[in-house]
Specification:
mainly alpha; 70% helix; 2 domains; MetI-like fold
């Protein structure tokens, strides 16, 4: 039986609903503005005064010009290359590290885990990192964005926690049957931590896709830069994508900036729904156990 609400409860609920609606609008409108502006003309964007609800002078010229820009498309391909090269290495190292930290009876495990955890809080700094990348011959190479920081200790701890949630009796029975550690990982551990691996893929993927600082330090050739560095130059440095096309395209300069944002955001939005069903479960594994 539901308790009948009095006037104070109704007013309080109304205030809460209003606040939530305003917060939702404040979150949604910037994304809506970027999408609408990408389909509008520069004249309409300038005349809108920062408030756009519907496209003005609807057109797709901004997208045509953006896709025709060689530097933007090249940087998009560079970011995809970084993802293709990085994700297998990230997952392999993370699973191996997590499996080691979750294993029982390993020699010097306590000290090695302590050294691994130490790297979460202390590092050599930017200059030693740069000198290390340069001495390894990775400077101005895509591998400078892949190999340094190939494993996140935080993600390894999430993987460790997920592995520790698997009943040890399963692993023990596999050892009794003569299975090696590689067989145990491949046939028992990995199938049972798929939700966590999906979360790790999302974490690493979003991190690589949004990364720009490392490329600004280790990459000097513009054609080797990832997409976020080009977008940063467009939005922060006020570099117009239309510079390589000439003055006749200045009318679409602002719209092309918004079109570039949409193009960069869409891949992550397309991937997330496929991993969403695993996301909550994978995150909660690390939240419940430490």
């Amino acid at each position: 039986m539901h308790k009948r609400k009095n006037a104070e409860d109704i007013i309080l609920d109304g205030i809460i609903y209003i606040i939530l609606i305003l917060l939702a609008l404040a979150t949604f409108y910037p994304m809506w503005y970027v999408l609408i502006a990408s389909f509008s003309s520069g004249t309409h964007i300038a005349a809108s005064g920062g408030l756009l609800l519907w496209p003005g002078d609807f057109n797709i010229e901004a997208y045509k010009l953006t896709f025709a820009h060689p530097l933007l498309i090249r940087s998009f391909c560079n970011s995809l290359a970084v993802l293709v090269l990085s994700l297998p290495i990230n997952i392999l190292l993370t699973v191996l590290c997590g499996y080691f930290m979750a294993s029982a009876g390993m020699v010097w495990k306590k000290y090695i885990v302590g050294i691994i955890m130490f790297t979460m809080f202390f590092s050599g700094g930017l200059i030693p990192k740069f000198l290390n990348v340069q001495d390894l011959g990775l400077y101005n190479s895509i591998w400078a964005l892949v190999l340094p920081g190939a494993m996140s200790v935080y993600n390894a701890i999430i993987c460790k926690t997920a592995i520790e949630g698997i009943p040890y009796s399963l692993v023990e029975s596999a050892y009794i049957d003569g299975a090696s550690d590689i067989a145990v990982m491949r046939k028992i551990i990995l199938p049972l931590i798929k939700p966590t691996m999906a979360v790790l893929l999302l974490y690493y993927g979003v991190s690589h896709w949004n990364a720009w600082f490392s490329a600004s330090i280790y990459i000097k050739d513009a054609e080797k830069l990832p997409i976020q560095n080009i977008l940063r130059a467009v939005l922060i440095s006020n570099t117009k994508l239309t510079e390589s096309f000439g003055d006749s395209y200045n009318a679409y300069a602002d719209a092309m900036q918004y079109a570039a944002i949409v193009i960069i955001t869409v891949p992550i939005m397309c991937v997330y729904p496929f991993l969403q069903k695993h996301f909550t479960k994978g995150v909660m594994i690390g939240a419940v156990k430490g």
